[in-house]
């Protein structure tokens, strides 16, 4: 099964809404790999409110179109007006975007696969390092300190993490890789 790399962003109550979006993603996939959460200035949004952004990798049997449909439903439930033609220029409760789809049997050998946007590319590269995916020699600048968000009593955002629910449905976070990605 392929892995989706996802971009998450919010500048309306971002700590709360990022946590809610991660909880919704855990309903779609049993394991999430989450980069650190960074505060960034808005791009093409006239509001001065900073964004929180992170990258997430997850496995899903859904097609890209079906997964994007699920993301749009999450955004709508969280208050984003999906019918507004100017929604990309406005502040948002949550923005969920598929950045790329990766087959773990193939190297990521093209820098064009990675997003160019400076508000998400560093987190994608950091997440690739966490997942032991060869990102080639693409520039990896040191990242600023992450921003902490809390989901069900678990602190997320300072370093890359693996998030899962245990058999009792409780959220657990590990700062190590626990996945098939670690296999040779």
**Low-confidence segments:** 179-184
Total helices: the number is 3
- What's the name of the CATH homologous superfamily? 7,8-Dihydro-6-hydroxymethylpterin-pyrophosphokinase HPPK
In total, the number of domains comes to 1
**Structural classification:** alpha+beta
What's a concise summary of this model?
Helix content is 21%, strand content 26%. It has three helices and nine strands, in the order E-H-E-E-E-H-E-H-E-E-E-E.
Features:
single chain; 184 residues; alpha+beta; Alpha-Beta Plaits; seven-stranded antiparallel beta sheet; two-stranded antiparallel ribbon; disordered C terminus
Description:
The structure is a single chain. With 184 residues, this protein is α+β, with helices and mostly antiparallel strands. The chain has a single domain (3-182), classed as Alpha-Beta Plaits (2-Layer Sandwich). The protein has 3 helices and 9 strands. It has helices spanning 14-28, 64-77, 121-130, and strands at residues 3-10, 31-34, 38-40, 51-59, 95-102, 149-151, 154-156, 161-165, 171-174. The strands form 2 sheets. Strands 1, 2, 3, 4, 5, 8 and 9 form a 7-stranded antiparallel β-sheet that branches. A two-stranded antiparallel sheet has the order 6-7. The longest helix is centred in the first third of the chain and has 15 residues, at 14-28. The radius of gyration is 16 Å and the shape is globular.
